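Hi, here's the filled form for the chain we discussed.

Project: internal
Contact: R.S.
Residues: 462
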Amino acid sequence: MFYPLRGKAGAGGAGLMRRAAAWRRAPRRTLASLLCALCLLCGGCGFDVAANLRPPRGAGDQQLIAKALESYLKSQPDVPAGAEYTLKYPLNGSQRAAFIVDDYNGDGQQEAYAFYRVGTDITAKTRVNYLAQINGTWQSVADIEGFGYEIDRVFIAHTGSGTDTLCVGWQQAGTYNCEMLTYEMKDTLTTGDMGGYSAAAALDLLGTGYDQMLLFNAAHETGGDMAYARLYAWTADGAQQRAEAPLDPRTQYYTEPKTSRLSSTVTGVYADGVRTDGSAVTELVYWNGQGLIAPFSTADNGYDNVTTWRKSGLPSMDIDGDGAIEWPLSSPMSGYTDTWWVSKWQALDFRSGLPMDKYTGVVNLGDGYCLRTADAYWDTHTVSYDAEAHELTVVNADGAAVLKIDAQPLSAEAKEGYDTVATAGTMRYSAWYGPAGTAGPTGTEIFSLDKLRYMLMLLPAQ
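And the returned structure, exactly as it came back:
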């Protein structure tokens, strides 16, 4: 769907992590978000998501910016009268608005970038328009062709120069590859190219008080036989590569980076690398004061990240909310080969440089929890799962059910005989386990509500 030039614009659009459970989040998302989620799952990087999102009515400056953009388009001789347009929204990241507003030039007033496409030609590249307030009125100042068709994400980088830089990640159709470009309004709207990436983070890794850009490149993206993390910092000449660290070359693409404090002075960036067979590794990158360090992929181990490799492909996360990132070392659960896994969660002891064990349990990623147990528990137990009912059943060696975990929206009627263990957002997690404090069906299981509240670890949003 496209829209005539008549002043309708605003914030909207959303992406979805590949492994997120859309049903669990549905009550908290808009219809536009769900449409986008379905499109991403079905169509890959080249799908025209923005064409399915109606630009919502803006408020305040958003509405004025929209009118300024439309005035510009109507004034262009190569834009036919009554032409239709599509606002292009970033699909991922924290900046999802139709117009990316900031005081870019440091003059005390806001400026804005807009991304759009005129007409119905889906092969036409997205254009970038820079708008500013001139004598109190929003006006288009510059307009150039973008790098591609879809926008992966945008960052507003605080570079320490007194001005801010817009960084735009452009998707490459049909691939996991993106390209990171910078945009700055000087005498004209100028661009710089940092190169390709499949995951990106803007943060202060050097401890300067200003932003740098960290890009993760899979081997097929670099055109060589090695994957890299590359750090870019801003100088008087724009963004320049400061350092790089080789990574496991078997990675096909990287997922969303996560940051974590490794010490009082060192910040680490974790990113999961997914291989073609669906297995995964977790890479860690940090600045040690002299260079970029990736401790899990080194020359000593042939850049083979065996420390964090798991066949399950389960993502790393801060599973317990302590601020550290954990990763799961997984083995198939009894009776399964590739569906349910027993995961031992580990984290880095930064002082020793060694991984340390933290928890063992079974992860239900779709329903958003990990059932924490003793290490040896799953030697004599397994699970079954009713996907339609969202109910996980723990079964002992005799084949008897000893515990059931049910995940449902709060709006659903509570099941008779189940106790509420936890609630989160719009979800209720309930359990059947027999009378509290008594033996289970075979006399070997003893559960209580307090014990289950300890065992049930709710996962952060993925």
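Let me know if anything looks off before we file it.
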